Amino acid sequence: MRVGVPKEIKNHEYRVGLTPPSVAELVSAGHEVVVETQAGCGIDFDDDAYRGVGATILPDAKAVFAAADMIVKVKEPQAVEIAMLEPRHLLFTYLHLAADKPQAEGLMQSGATCIAYETVTAPGGGLPLLKPMSEVAGRMSVQVGAHYLEKEQGGRGVLLGGVPGVAPAKVAILGGGISGINAAQMAVGMRADVTIYDVNMSRLAELDMFFSSQIKTAYASKAAIAAAVKNASLVIGAVLIPGAAAPKLVTRDMVKTMKRGAVLVDIAIDQGGCFETSHATTHQDPVFEVDGVIHYCVANMPGAVARTSAFALNNATLPFALKLAGQGAEEAMKADPHLAAGLNVYRGKIAYKAVADDLSLAYEAWNG
After folding, report:
1. Active-site residues: which are they?
2. 3-class DSSP state for residue 190?
């Protein structure tokens, strides 16, 4: 199969769909790989690094899409990229369609087969292709939250860990999944006062055992979330419903009760965000204020640490890319139901029910 890697064009997105080591694996398996010039420059790989492992360098995205059967990306295709997709194409990337109806409709019109990283499942449960970026985003959320709490950034002027004689800041983490636990690890390391909120009591018990006395846990009732938001200096939204829009856990009225200069970090923004006051931002313009509360809602957070993120993502996606290239989409999905769970758009129809429900679009299951 001919596999194409275009350069990412989303605002300040420096990751790349395939690193040179991943390209080498595909080439050794007998596939051709075409890469847009400078696609890897954001993670310090020039065109010669790709040529050295057997890739062909093409001058622009149009040439890559024209030459390739499978397109491997990082972020959802932008409008100009969707226009280059054809029914013969297999698109393998993050899509996050539940919060993006225009993209969903564009992909449907293209006729391409679109497999989303974020809904591929694992035999033991979980979302293996979302996990590495959830880990990155969770850890980053505390870094950026601590930064925007600084006074010159418009924050409260609070140090997360405090100092002797001054109490640490309260950090509320909504969601005890992969992002939440990674956020908690970072916040604990910075000696903050950390509470994780979740509705899954089994998960809270696991977190309690894992962190011991380093954190507190609480059931995520509306009343508990309201109290947490009011008292916290940093609130991290880390909830996830696979493939579906994130629930709005923090209302506008709750935001009004927060301390001036407090910070909200919405990791769930790719799925629409879990704060009612959220809207997607970019690395170029990452924050905005509502009622004196700083909102950080960058939709591609891991892009800020592109080299770490690209390698972490490739570690997870490469085995699936090899299956798709080796067997073709339909045979690979027939052989692996967990890969088939990633199918979001097929032959002009939405093939993932949660996406169809959230966007009020017709759903048609793939019957492989």
Report:
1. 96, 270
2. coil
Contact status, residue 112 vs residue 69, Cβ threshold 8 Å: no
- Whether 368 shows a pLDDT value over 80: the answer reads no
Give the angle 350-299-77 at the CA atoms, nearest 5°: 45
Q: What is the mean pLDDT of residues 294-321?
A: 96
Vertex 320, ends 315 and 321: CA angle to 5°? Answer: 90
**Structural domains of the chain, ranges and CATH numbers in brackets:** 2-120+305-359 (3.40.50.720), 133-299 (3.40.50.720)
Give the whole-angstrom CA distance, residue 346 versus residue 89: 11
| 3-state class (DSSP) for residue 20 | helix
Report residue 152: phi and psi, to 5°: -70, -15
pTM for the structure as a whole: 0.88
Nearest to 49 by CA among 76, 19, 72: 19
pLDDT in tens, 236-294: 999 988 878 899 999 999 999 999 999 999 999 988 999 999 999 999 999 999 999 99
Nearest to 317 by CA among 41, 116, 36: 116
CB atoms within 10 A of CB 292: 14
Q: What's the pLDDT band for 198 if we cut at 50, 70, 90?
A: very high
Residue 23 CA: distances (Å) to CA of 6, 72, 307? 13, 11, 16
